[in-house]
What does this fold into?
Amino acid sequence: MLLKTRGIVIRTVKYGETSVITDIFTEEKGLHSFIAGSVRAAKARMPYNLFQPMTVVELVAYFRDEPNALNRLKEVRASEVWSKIPFDIRRGAVALFMAEVCKKCIQEGSDDRDLMHFILENLRWLDTTPHPIANLHLHFLLQLTGFLGFQPEGDADDDTPVFFDLKEGVFSRQEPLHGDSLRAEQSAQMLALLQVPLERCHEVKMTRADRKIVLQKLLQFYQVHVPGFQGINTPDILDMIMG
It folds into this structure.
């Protein structure tokens, strides 16, 4: 069948002399792999820059709705053009982090338009916000858990300290006896990030050390709930650039 849809490029690897294999999270069919020929050749009909992670495209492909099928792209054009992400090293690093996390979490064939729109919303905000973006990747991780089915539970309705329990996935009034938890200060920051909208996540006060600790614990939390969630490379890059 001929598939016409919008999609977000998640990952691209070079293939052969001029081709690429790319994973695209499509609006119609979820996450699938595609092959595009001659995109790295001179005067390519489908320019290579359209295959960078977190590029939003309109595509036409010869599509087989089968597990692990490699579908051939016929046409690709830009659906949205980012004005800052490709040129701002900090925004670009956050986009790469988001792409790597999505690749690890989204199952092939997962057809979830709400998830795609969530990713788009975050990319648009990342590209246009005039506010600091140092908390954005943490907010993204926390909100993504809601789409993946393991969002942390808890609230802060008084001044009692809370502790995030990684094993149970809850904010508790009592510090867990095991060591897989966050200290009260970082737990409060994490809970605040979970509760504020994207447009206000920059308002949560955190130091660089706080962000590093919360990110490490959040990635451990993902490892508990997402099979094969290992080998995330971009946090070190984020820490260096955001610092």
